[in-house]
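Complex record, two chains
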Amino acid sequence: MLLMFFTERAYHAVPEEEIFKLRSFFGVPNKLFDPAKGAQLLNEYIDEKVLCDELGFDAVMLNEHHGTPFCMGAVMDVEASILARVTKHVKITLLGNPTPVVANPLRLAEELSMIDMISGGRLVSGFIRGAGSEQLFNNANPAFNREYFDEAHDLILAIWTRPGPFRWEGKHFHYRFINPWVLPLQKPHPPIWIPGLISVETVIWAAQHGYPYIALATMLKPTLELFNVYAKTAAEKGYQAGPENFGYLQPVVVAETDEKAYELGKCFMFGGGFSHFARPEWMFPPGYNSKDATRRLASQAANPNLPSSPFQRDPANDEEVRELKRALYASYDEWHKQGQVVSGSPKTVVKKLRHILEVLRPGIFSFWLDGPLPLQDRRTCVRLIGTEVLPELRGIGKELGLEDPFTRAPGSVHLNGRQHQPVGNADLLDPSTLSS
Amino acid sequence: MAEDWTEEKVRVGETELCVLKGGQGRPLLYLHGELGFEGWCKWHTELARKRTLLVPLHPGFGRSQAADWIMDMRDLAAFYTRFVREQGLAPVDLAGFSLGGWIAAEMAAANSAQLHKMILVGAAGLRPPQGEIMDMYTVTARRFLGRNVHDPEHTPEFATIYGGSPEQTAQQAATQWEAFEDARAATARIAWKPYMFTQSMSHLLDNVTGLPTLIVWGRQDNVVPLAAGQLYRDKIAGSRLVEFDHCGHMPMIEKSDEFIRAVMDFLD
């Protein structure tokens, strides 16, 4: 089992009310950004990942968002480049590069190759379509988002594996002379993992390519359903999906006591948390979703993944902003009960995480720490995970047979005509286990 | 309101186009805007007394098939050029609203001989010399629609366009929401960048000759600024601009009577 650490590199120095006013992190005016504060935070986040390396985590995970205090890692390859040099052991996992948004697959292939070389072959690459709001921010036509994604993937793989020089005349990308003098150290190319929220199309695509799918903190039941969509697709491709094909990201806060950790867990709700990532009209720009997904959205709530904002309209004045904030924080206990944040002392957290591992059976598990925690509490959290939680989880991983993509190659268990087995353990789906 | 129109399927190349047809007399081809066809209004009914109205739903807009190869406005204008030729409509009277006005202007710039008379209503397609074309992608379709009229309170038809109705069911609302999403996506394919105009349009319009053109604009147009209408007038030789005061982007419903009269006079 592979154990990983993740944090959005959030900018919490923004007045929280500004986010509630918009009901969106995306779109908060950047006059509220102080680069000196940003510089301090970015360095703290890098130090935190170095600490993870020293504590024995297997991997650190980066992501990328644009135009939002939710995450300052707008160009995560910059951070990954630094980590490639200053860390020693951890896999540097990028989940993922938003290829339609970056819109230059050749440049991206070169950057990733350099990161892989400098790190000594520790890069895990990942590709995403980019959040809806980022199509607006980068002026990437959302109507071609899926086509950009597919073609960029094929092109990057070609760049990494096909001897140059060669020419690429695609539908959206055109290069007359591909012959980069930087190539990945890992052969044939770095591992590719695909993160996702709710897109069934992405799950199917990942399964068809045999890429591990990393569920980003989605609720257990829909996550397990998606894993089984993956497993079914895998069976059609002739292999049995197992723990090596799946990863799970889970918000976790650890402190010396359950009470303190519970309090710190509230930090995840800063600004409304992910339910205020961006306004729905920015989350789902035109053509970004498939026709089927649009039809699903037309008749159901936008995101089954998280509790929606308590307000269905914009707050009209300061009083309503305060009320929105109050209502949101008042829902913390419910959030917590549903396992949207797992908190506690190391002992408590191990117990709760065991449940998640038993249900989903992922070979990759990532801790997600976020919110405006005091630096000292953040460091304590990471240290406690590293020294007290990781060893326990490794034992559980062994006991449950949770192979990861490095101990068993995804797609290597051939069915040879046999019926495939469902993955995970749906019988254990009882969220009350998580609240204790 | 009488909805005496029928729906036909017309094949253009590999694409099956849905065409609404109503009325009698010389054909008038109407190209709808970026939110899709607004629904059969009073002005359609009035014009249909003397004209056969042809309203194709653009490729990818709901009931018309999408065409994968159509990736910019030139492609779409060329598609309609073929439609006009194959349907034996040339030289045809052509009207276009907003996005549809842009298609019409592209068709005229490419081959004005294919057209008989042209009507541009709040047409996109030109970079406005002052102001910007409002970006509908920063807001919801409904909110954008709200910006399309200057005074919704005094525009009775505003409540009923795009499937609007006080008795609307949840199912109808979902269906219309989906139609808006189709329209917004199909528009994004061809109009995303630069948003809603052709960089070279003001030069292309020099190629429009001998085409009687009526340009209709609301002075309080919040979507495509009046300055764009004035530039269309300056660029299209012999064209006439009719401006309505206290009127937004949709004079055909906001100044319905005046609009119908101006168009009738022009077409007669």
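Note: The longest strand of chain B covers residues 15-23.
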